[in-house]
Amino acid sequence: MKEDLSGPEPGFGFGALDAFDGYVAYRLLDDVELAPEIAEMKELIDAVAGGLVISQDLGLGMMLWMTQFFPDEPWAQVQRTRSLAMLDRMWMEDGYFCREPYAPHVRIAFANYGVSVGLQAVAAMPERVRRLNDYFDAYRSGDEYDREAITHVMSCSSHFPGLLLRD
């Protein structure tokens, strides 16, 4: 976005999950007062949800997390099914989800923790969530992410999702 949030940064468009994120946030804040914004986001979702296939670990976790709020809506049902199927392909028996299907040895702790939160939000793959947490409790990448706050915050969120889960 431009710094004043008046529109997309030139050369960049909407992110694949932006409309979904806006829709969920607006609905959770105020269905009535934000009805025009909700309708706008819904129109964007309806235009892309049927063809959207996410293959990146953190995006899959985020999508799963969003589907928990309105699980009976068609977009949520389609995206939940697709996300779980993609994650099933991306599971590595060592105990992590690879970054992308074409990169089986690339693993990022904070992104895996995001997948964990998404899986917990939809009550799926609990054994893989446990194994993922065990794996990353011991794994160190040797890069800056070992020290970055986001990794530690997401670890706590994965181990103790609390209010990140609707129920």
What does this protein structure show overall?
By secondary structure, the protein is an all-alpha fold. The chain has two domains: 1-48, no CATH class; 53-164, no CATH class. Helices cover 54% and strands 2% of the residues. It is built from seven helices and two strands. The protein has helices at 18-29, 35-48, 57-67, 74-90, 109-121, 126-138, 149-159, and strands spanning 91-92, 96-97. A two-stranded antiparallel sheet has the order 1-2. α1 (18-29) runs antiparallel to α2 (35-48). The model has no long low-confidence stretch (mean pLDDT 94).
Radius of gyration: 17 Å
Continuous helix count? 7
How much helicity do the residues have? Answer: 40-55%
Series of secondary-structure elements, N-terminal to C-terminal = HHHHEEHHH
Mean pLDDT: 94
**Low-confidence residue ranges:** none
Please outline what is shown here.
This protein has helices at 18-29, 35-48, 57-67, 74-90, 109-121, 126-138, 149-159; strands at 91-92, 96-97. The chain has 167 residues and is mostly helical.
Key words describing this protein structure:
mainly alpha; 2 domains; about 0% strand; about 170 residues
SSE diagram, text form:
Elements: H1 18-29, H2 35-48, H3 57-67, H4 74-90, E1 91-92, E2 96-97, H5 109-121, H6 126-138, H7 149-159
Antiparallel strand pairs: 1-2
Helix pairs in contact: 1-2, 3-4, 3-5, 5-6, 5-7
